[in-house]
Structure formats: structure tokens, C-alpha cells
Specification:
- By secondary structure, the protein is of the alpha+beta class.
- It has three helices and six strands, in the order βββααβββα.
- It has one domain: NE0471 N-terminal domain-like (2-Layer Sandwich).
- Helix content is about 15%, strand content about 30%.
- The strands form two sheets. A three-stranded antiparallel sheet has the order 1-2-3. It has a three-stranded antiparallel sheet with strand order 4-5-6.
- The structure holds zinc ion (2 copies).
Length: about 110
């Protein structure tokens, strides 16, 4: 399967203490991912339950302690409260982009 440049990250910028993460993709787009959004849309079963549309979960710790790559398809974050069960596929991260170009059409219900 050919890699899709839209979901192939070339650079992940996640400085300690920051509140926003940036991911640059092979197609030249830079995604702006506020921690609030990343944590609120944590895709794990604990946060999202089973089935139904994605929903925003408030109140999680928004401090990113650790970022790890999972295989060649996803990132895993460890949050300040040690929550680390969310596996964020690159496709999912791209969907969560909050940059000026993507934000107006952001609709988590379309995320599969
Ligand atoms: Zn979670
Ligand atoms: Zn974007």
C-alpha cells in the first residue's frame, strides 16, 4: 500500500510545557493540535465507550508527558494523569487538525 502524504508525518513538534502540538505532513500541511482537543477526543475505549459518534470528554489532564510512535501508523500520548491508552492514528490526527484551513470544516462525527 502506498503511503498517503496527507497522513505521513515528517515532523512532530511537541515541546514540553506547550499546550499545542504541531505535526507537519509529507504533503506540506502543518496541523495545529491543541492538547485540549487531543485529550478531549482521546480515541480509547475508556474515553469513548463503545460505538456511537465520537464525543468530547472534558476534564482530562492536558499535559503531554510522552509521545511514542506506534508502528508506522499512529502516535500514543501519555498524559499528566498517566492516561495512555489512546492510540491516535495519523489519519485521525489529521482529522483533528485545528489550523485556520481545517478548523471551519472540523466535524468529529465524520471521523471513523
Ligand atoms: Zn482515553
Ligand atoms: Zn489543517
Amino acid at each position: 500500500m502506498a503511503e498517503d502524504p496527507k497522513t505521513t508525518p515528517t515532523f512532530v513538534k511537541a515541546p514540553h510545557g506547550a499546550r499545542v502540538m504541531e505535526i507537519t505532513w509529507a504533503d506540506g500541511h502543518t496541523s495545529v493540535l491543541p492538547h485540549e482537543i487531543l485529550r478531549g477526543y482521546c480515541p480509547c475505549a475508556t474515553c469513548q465507550g463503545h460505538g456511537g459518534a465520537l464525543h468530547f470528554v472534558e476534564g482530562g489532564d492536558q499535559d503531554v508527558r510522552d509521545v511514542e510512535q506506534v508502528g508506522n501508523y499512529a502516535l500514543q500520548f501519555r498524559w499528566g494523569d498517566s492516561h495512555d491508552s489512546g492510540i491516535y492514528s495519523f489519519r485521525y490526527l489529521r482529522t483533528l487538525c485545528q489550523c485556520a484551513a481545517c478548523k471551519p470544516s472540523f466535524d468529529p462525527r465524520r471521523v471513523s
